[in-house]
Design goal:
By secondary structure, this protein is an alpha/beta fold. Helix content is 38%, strand content 19%. It has a single domain (17-243), classed as LmbE-like (Rossmann fold, 3-Layer(aba) Sandwich), CATH 3.40.50. The longest helix has 19 residues, at 65-83. Bound molecules: zinc ion.
């Protein structure tokens, strides 16, 4: 286990407040769950801000949205607990219809000014085609765009959304942003030691990962790095990291 202050790719010498802002319950665990486990193990405080409740997260049959919201909140609480996450907040946008408009940006700016993170984590809004097998969900792209535009320049600039000042929310500039789910990583974190913890957290999202956990685990374990050997698989999360010049 790495401790705060030790040399690490992150280079963080003090405990950080890390705010993960993504579209759906389960996005943090899928996109960067092992990195979250690595960070909490090192003494950093990780909080979630989820933009929707994932209330369209079913495949075949329509479901009661209120029941699905309650289920997905419970699943997310259990998954986050396994990763050592400090808190979870929801912004209540409608699942599937997230749009990076000014009202949504205002709400993400409010969240950032309330939580005052040094590090913001989201996902890469430019990533459309993932692994030739998946079109990146429009909510994921919208979430990444919203977070990118809220962090800079709006959250740190008092001229943006002056009504937030009237709420007592002072400008806040995060020092860095990490975009997960990217095709253009400039940081690859070795998260081998936390891969199984990530799988345990993902298992809590039972409504999403299906009943066949063995098959799910096999797929997830096959996502090792190319230099892995069968006896010693290695796992990474790639990020596009932006550290703002002070
Ligand atoms: Zn999602």
């Amino acid at each position: 286990m790495m401790t705060v202050g030790e040399l690490s790719p992150e280079g963080w010498l003090e405990p950080q407040r890390i705010l993960v802002i993504l579209a759906h319950p389960d996005d943090p665990e899928f996109f960067c769950g092992a990195a979250i486990a690595r960070w909490t193990a090192a003494g950093h405080e990780v909080r979630y801000g989820l933009l929707t409740h994932g209330d369209k997260g079913v495949k075949d049959q329509p479901a009661d949205p209120q029941a699905l919201i309650a289920l997905r909140e419970a699943e997310q609480r259990a998954a986050a607990a396994i990763l050592g996450v400090h808190s979870i907040r929801y912004l209540d946008f409608a699942d599937g219809y997230l749009v990076p408009d000014l009202e949504a940006r205002r709400q993400v700016v409010r969240l950032i000014r309330q939580e005052r993170p040094q590090v913001v984590v989201s996902c890469d809004p430019t990533n459309v085609f993932v692994h030739d097998t998946y079109i990146n969900h429009p909510d994921h792209r919208a979430a990444g765009q919203l977070v990118m535009d809220a962090v800079f320049p709006a959250a740190g600039n008092p001229m943006f959304f002056p009504e937030l000042l009237a709420e007592g929310l002072q400008p806040w500039s995060a020092r860095e942003v990490w975009f997960s789910l990217t095709a253009q990583p400039n940081v690859r974190l070795d998260v081998t030691a936390y891969w199984e913890q990530r799988l345990r957290a993902l298992h809590e999202h039972r409504s999403q990962v299906g009943a066949d956990l063995a098959a799910f685990d096999e797929r997830q374990r096959s996502a090792h790095t190319e230099d892995s050997t069968p006896d010693a698989p290695r796992y990474e999360h790639g990020f596009r990291r932006v550290v703002f010049r002070q």
